[in-house]
Amino acid sequence: MARSYFGTDGIRGKANEKITPELALKVGQAAGLIFQQGEGRHRVVIGKDTRLSGYMIENALVAGFTSVGMDPLLLGPMPTPAVAMLTRSMRAEVGVMISASHNAFEDNGIKLFGPDGHKLSDEIEREIERLLDSDLSRRLAAPASLGRAKRIDDVRARYIEFAKRTLPRSMSFEGLRVVLDCANGAAYRVAPEALWELGAEVISIGVEPDGLNINRDCGSTSPGALRQKVRDLRADVGIALDGDADRVIMVDECGHLIDGDQLMAVVAESWREQGLLSKPGIVATEMSNLGLERYLASLNLSLERTAVGDRYVIARMRAGGFNVGGEQSGHVILSDYSTTGDGLVTAMQVLAVIKRSGQRVSEVCRRFEPTPQILRNVRAGRDRLEQDCVKAAIDAGRMRLGANGRLIIRPSGTEPVIRVMGEGDNRDLVEEIVGEVCEALKTVAA
Questions:
Q1: 206 vs 4, which has greater pLDDT?
Q2: Cβ–Cβ < 8 Å for 246, 101
Q3: d(CA 75, CA 43)
Q4: C-alpha closest to that of 10 among 211, 247, 288, 309
Q5: Residue tagged active-site, from 53, 101, 204, 338
Q6: What pLDDT score was predicted for residue 34?
Q7: pLDDT-derived band at 414, boundaries 50, 70, 90
Q8: Do domains 6-152 and 158-365 have the same CATH topology?
Q9: CB environment 409-426: b (16+ within 10 A), e (fewer)
Q10: What is the CATH number of domain 373-445?
């Protein structure tokens, strides 16, 4: 059954158009009704990134949760993985992150976590949607049973200590000059503090949020300023988080990008050597590079692929007992520590490998040569994929690539875009095929 509200990563859309106070209030009521378990007080943890609309949505959610008898614990600006962690550690029934991740400030979203810190199952999301479309007025709490909201002040220190404990006590980043781009987002305080406390020399950019500049010309989706800063300051490494800090990409001393595929390769090989890899392989999406799959195979490690979306990666990891997985975009899930992607923790694990090796970042983090991969976006709805000329272009492209390449076409789960990705050893052929599929999609649009 098609869902009306939830996409691949919570509910997301334009603030005050799709993500309205009315919707947020009803989400609070619906989630509160579903997750209240047993007697006594019922807690919900609420965090947010730095978008201007976060204040509006936070207040509406508080009204919704308190109206059904839940006590909101307000964290203020905090990374998504911190909200997931604090939901568990503070024994809350539900956690909420107000964020549209890497999107521009105009968008916002509502991500929900269960009491175990994991994102909600499809079944629970469908139940919330059913309640959103129903009249809940008869299920509100009695006046004496209304919830009480409280702001929690020590959460930054709690998350920083959690992140530091993912490393051996003896680990120090002393001697590393790190340029850190926090995307003017949720980690603008915690990430610089954590790396500084571990001994690194930290030069921070993207740490002056004004409510409107989150992800604007900064962060993991726009790393140009980071690359330049690393070169200008002759830094050892650059780290770029996104708006809610659940993803990370890195930059070597020459300013070259290190994506999520390379980061997963670094962690997987290091953990295997230390006996920390729970299974001989990792989980990634269909978008991860063929070069990663070939490299892991050379180490006798497998790569299990899922649909795009960290929720699908996590589901496969849990089902198969894997403890490393993620996406090329920089969502890396290290399930020994976190129930979702954690950009800061991932970066710290990679920095630890760099420190132990004594080598330059370019030598440590370039584990494989990526297979040529072309990704283009066409603004179109998913119905375009049902057109005969589009199907014919896709089938012809896959036949031409054969066993030496891949062609992936998928609608975005967060915006009206169809993503066309091709890869193979022959770059010219891949570009030609991707171009033909995109042209077919555009022809239908015309």
A1: 206
A2: yes
A3: 13
A4: 309
A5: 101
A6: 96
A7: low
A8: yes
A9: bbbeebeebbbbbbbbee
A10: 3.30.310.50
Q: Which stretches of 151-235 are DSSP H helices?
A: 155-164, 190-197, 224-233
Structure pTM?
A: 0.92
What one-character DSSP code corresponds to residue 183? T
**What is the amino acid identity at position 248?**
V
Give tens-digit pLDDT for 10-38. 999 999 999 999 999 999 999 999 998 77
Cβ–Cβ < 8 Å for 260, 330 = yes
Whole-angstrom Cα distance, residue 46 to residue 160? 18
Helix (H) or strand (E) holding 410, with range, is strand 405-411
Average pLDDT, the chain: 95
Output 315-319 pairs: Cβ under 8 A, ≥24 positions apart. Answer: 316/283, 317/283
Q: CA end-to-end span of the chain, whole Å? A: 30
Please choose, from the candidates 117, 102, 120, the residue with its C-alpha nearest in 3D space to the C-alpha of residue 414.
102
Mean per-residue pLDDT, 126-153: 95
Taking domain 158-365, whether its CATH number is 3.90.1170.50 is answered by no
What dotted CATH number matches 6-152? 3.40.120.10
Query: With bands split at pLDDT 50, 70 and 90, how would you rate the model's confidence at 3?
Result: confident
Catalytic: 101?
yes
Look up residue 421 and give its two tokens: 């990705």
For 41-154, list the strands marked E by DSSP: 42-48, 70-77, 94-98, 107-113, 150-151
**What angle, 0 to 180 degrees and rounded to 10, lies between the N-to-C axes of helices 343-357 and 260-274?**
60
For residue 406, pLDDT over 80 is answered with: yes
273-290 pLDDT, tens per residue? Answer: 999 999 999 999 999 999
pLDDT at 310: 87
| In the chain, domain spans | 6-152, 158-365, 373-445
Residue 35 Cα distances to 60, 84, 104, angstroms: 18, 15, 31
Q: How far apart are CA 7 and CA 111, in angstroms?
A: 10
